[in-house]
């Protein structure tokens, strides 16, 4: 879908046009012009409808004969819309146009915000997020089942400035698209080797990409990560992606992702029903990869590194067993009690490697780590665990501002003791109680003095139903959250 900006408020030649209505049914200039062009159709609709211009209200009108457009969408701005509201509006407009079969959308913005340029950028970003589809494997879709929208024009005073500002946001949306793509792909297409290759492609944007194979990881002592993948015919990899956009000697911000490209549970085999969903158990790595594309694409003024541990958890004759003891890169030993608690083993070595190699000032890991997180928070927000109050507050604010919220969960010695093993430094599960917390406590044992946060995105990486900006499927959650975090904390100087 092509996004464009224009100073002109003329009615387009076809498609859907959207205009804002202020609370109480007041018509701003753009809406008055549409009303006049349609012979009072807008005024008549307001007089005979409960729509009154309240925030988030919408009303769709079929344009009368003699008008170039097919449909008119009135959207209420109330007494003013927030940034997230403009994003949602963009997604709604694309959804409405696709539902009606329109190919063009024009949004006329002249009310509802003090900063209409930012509002215009938000509408464009929300529209592009909502326009995403992963339909490459459909061979028999009818024309009416395919998206119809080809272009969106946002009409606003200051269109040139809006176009310039949108360029950076479009780079972030491209990162979201990449995350959605790799998480959506089937596990016979995306597995450790091919996902590492997708990372390698990002060198075209200026990222430095290094790929460690099993031989190199074994030399480094990554017994925790390698143990997870030893039952698979696919080789495991660890990939680092480095972006150098900040000061030469500035320590980087590090992002670490769990990349279990398919999770059977291993010897602790998962139930068959629903196992097909485990292709997205690499959602944490997908977010890190998309984030690194976003930062490089918009040339972020920060030094950042993304590290992903890529494995496939399969139950063959060489698979890791409950009762095995593995030695992590840190030297700490781990007794395996459940081979389906594998993501934390991957992250244990990835976190240690990241600290040893890149000496980051801050480290944030992401993982579809525990089903317990979904029980606790549903599909509304990610669970956040941190050893630093300032970092937790920064991520909370970035979540609110980006519309990708996080909720802080506790850590503590009592939970840590639940990991005590009879024959090793720790076991890899703490029991049924507080499963998400004990998983985070496990990860914290592999964090040195680094400022750190763990985001459990098990409930957020995949959407079971569509919303205006997130079509059903891979959500791309976390890319916009962490891009906002980087922008606000490390670039807003």
UniProtKB/TrEMBL annotation:
What GO cellular component term, any one, is given? Answer: cytoplasm
Which positions are annotated as binding Mn(2+) 2?
258, 263, 281, 342
Active site residues according to the UniProt entry: 270, 344
Q: What class of enzyme is it?
A: hydrolase
Q: Which reaction does it catalyse?
A: Release of an N-terminal amino acid, preferentially leucine, but not glutamic or aspartic acids; Release of an N-terminal amino acid, Xaa-|-Yaa-, in which Xaa is preferably Leu, but may be other amino acids including Pro although not Arg or Lys, and Yaa may be Pro. Amino acid amides and methyl esters are also readily hydrolyzed, but rates on arylamides are exceedingly low
| Enzyme Commission identifier(s) | 3.4.11.1, 3.4.11.10
Q: Which GO terms describe its biological process?
A: proteolysis
Known NCBIfam families for this protein? PRK00913.1-2, PRK00913.1-4, PRK00913.2-2, PRK00913.2-4, PRK00913.3-5
Task: Kindly provide the name given to this protein in its UniProt entry.
Answer: Probable cytosol aminopeptidase
Gene name of this polypeptide: pepA
């Amino acid at each position: 879908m092509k996004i464009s900006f224009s100073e002109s408020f003329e009615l387009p030649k076809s498609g859907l046009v959207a205009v804002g209505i202020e609370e109480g049914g007041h018509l701003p200039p753009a809406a008055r012009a549409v009303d006049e062009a349609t012979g009072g159709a807008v005024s008549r609709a307001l007089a005979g409808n409960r729509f009154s211009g309240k925030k988030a209200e919408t009303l769709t009108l079929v344009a009368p004969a003699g008008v170039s457009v097919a449909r008119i969408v009135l959207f209420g701005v109330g007494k003013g819309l927030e940034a997230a509201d403009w994003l949602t509006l963009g997604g709604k407009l694309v959804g409405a146009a696709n539902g009606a079969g329109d190919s063009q959308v024009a949004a006329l913005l002249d009310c509802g915000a003090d900063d209409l340029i930012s509002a215009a950028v938000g509408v464009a970003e929300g529209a592009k997020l909502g326009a995403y589809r992963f339909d490459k494997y459909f061979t028999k879709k009818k024309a009416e089942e395919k998206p119809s929208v080809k272009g969106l024009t946002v009409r606003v005073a200051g269109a040139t400035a809006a176009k310039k500002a949108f360029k950076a946001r479009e780079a972030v949306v491209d990162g979201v698209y990449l995350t959605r793509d790799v998480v959506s792909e089937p596990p016979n297409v995306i597995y450790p080797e091919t996902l590492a290759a997708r990372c390698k492609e990002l060198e075209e944007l200026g990222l430095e990409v290094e790929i460690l194979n099993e031989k190199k990881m074994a030399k480094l002592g990554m017994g925790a990560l390698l143990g997870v993948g030893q039952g698979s015919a696919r080789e495991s990899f660890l990939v680092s992606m480095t972006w150098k956009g900040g000061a030469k000697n500035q320590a980087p911000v590090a992002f670490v992702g769990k990349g279990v490209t398919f999770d059977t549970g291993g010897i602790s085999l998962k139930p068959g029903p629903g196992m097909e969903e485990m292709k997205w158990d690499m959602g944490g790595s997908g977010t890190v990869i998309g984030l690194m594309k976003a930062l490089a694409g918009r040339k972020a003024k920060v030094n950042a590194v993304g590290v992903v541990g890529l494995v496939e958890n399969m139950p063959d004759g060489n698979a890791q067993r409950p009762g095995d003891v593995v030695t992590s890169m840190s030297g700490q030993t781990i007794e395996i009690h459940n081979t389906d608690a594998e993501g934390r083993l991957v992250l244990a070595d990835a976190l240690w490697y990241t600290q040893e190699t890149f000496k980051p000032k801050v480290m944030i890991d992401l993982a579809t780590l525990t089903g317990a997180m979904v029980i606790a928070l549903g599909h509304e927000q990610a669970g956040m665990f941190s050893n630093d109050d300032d970092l937790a507050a920064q991520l909370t604010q970035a979540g609110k501002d980006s519309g990708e919220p996080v909720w802080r969960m506790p850590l503590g010695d009592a939970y840590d003791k639940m990991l005590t093993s009879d024959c090793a430094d720790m076991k890899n599960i703490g029991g049924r109680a507080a499963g998400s917390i004990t998983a985070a406590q496990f990860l914290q044992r592999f964090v040195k003095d680094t400022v750190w946060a763990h985001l459990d995105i098990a409930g957020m990486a995949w959407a079971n139903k569509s919303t205006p900006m997130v079509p059903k499927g891979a959500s791309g959650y976390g890319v916009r959250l962490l891009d906002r975090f980087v922008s606000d904390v490390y670039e807003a100087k």
